[in-house]
Design brief:
It is built from 11 helices and no strands. It is mainly alpha-helical.
Length: 241
């Protein structure tokens, strides 16, 4: 199965540090989301979006709308998620500029991609993810979000049978995670790449990717991640006895 990252904090939420009603509501919303209390998180996201508009804090408002969309996504109301994320995208384009606009837009596109994937529309998901990747590559300072974007793009491309596009996306994700030293992310995308290589009957290449990930997991001191990688190594061994 494919490993996908989907936390609302994956993107940089620059606005959390400030004080004010909007920031407080937004922080409570993130906390509730992290605890899987999605209805409560939705209420706080609504309050944060409203207060942010009153305080003319547009970046925070866009973050709150994105969180709202993610709550609908988790509550399986994909139509509402799509609408909310569309509103967030329009707001970003109207209100923000520069690097913060590019970053906010990329994060919303990634969520729209996830909603499209959940709606069994991998072609649309790929389109959103490619656009997000292009924005993040152009503003190259957030490599972990970019790596997550490439990983999701690889999953969508793979679902459409676009094997070489999927392989390229997973390889780029692995490369970025190695640069940032994000062990969990690296193990996820290395596993996806290894599964793809195994499917292409390239067991040695698959093993090599997983051995790299295993070293990173060990250096990070994560037994859990190392065990996950070992499990995938064992699968390859069984398939090619």
């Amino acid at each position: 199965s494919n490993a996908r990252a989907a936390s609302p904090g994956e993107g940089r939420l620059a606005t959390v540090g400030a004080c004010g009603m909007a920031s407080d509501a937004f922080r409570r919303g993130l906390d509730a989301f992290a605890c899987s209390q999605f209805r409560e998180a939705l209420q706080e996201a609504n309050a944060a979006a409203e207060a942010a508009a009153e305080e003319a804090r547009w970046e925070l408002r866009c973050d709150a709308l994105r969180l709202r969309g993610q709550c609908f996504e988790q509550l399986r109301d994909l139509a509402a998620a799509r609408t909310t994320l569309g509103d967030a995208l329009a707001e970003v384009r109207a209100r923000l500029s520069g690097a913060s606009a590019a970053h906010a837009e990329a994060n919303i596109l990634l969520r729209l991609g996830a909603v499209a994937a959940r709606s069994s529309r991998p072609g649309l998901a790929t389109q959103y993810q490619r656009n997000a990747v292009a924005l993040l590559e152009a503003n190259g300072n957030d490599k972990d979000t970019l790596a997550a974007a490439y990983n999701n793009l690889g999953i969508s491309a793979g679902r459409q049978g676009m094997t070489s596009a999927a392989r390229a996306a997973f390889s780029r994700a692995v490369e970025l995670r190695k640069e940032t030293g994000h062990a969990e992310g690296l193990c996820a995308c290395a596993t996806n790449l290894a599964n793809l290589l195994r499917g292409e009957d390239k067991p040695e290449a698959a093993v090599s990717e997983l051995e790299d990930a295993r070293r990173v997991a060990r250096n990070a001191g994560s037994r859990r991640l190392e065990d996950q990688v070992l499990l995938n190594l064992a699968k390859i061994g069984r398939a090619h006895v």
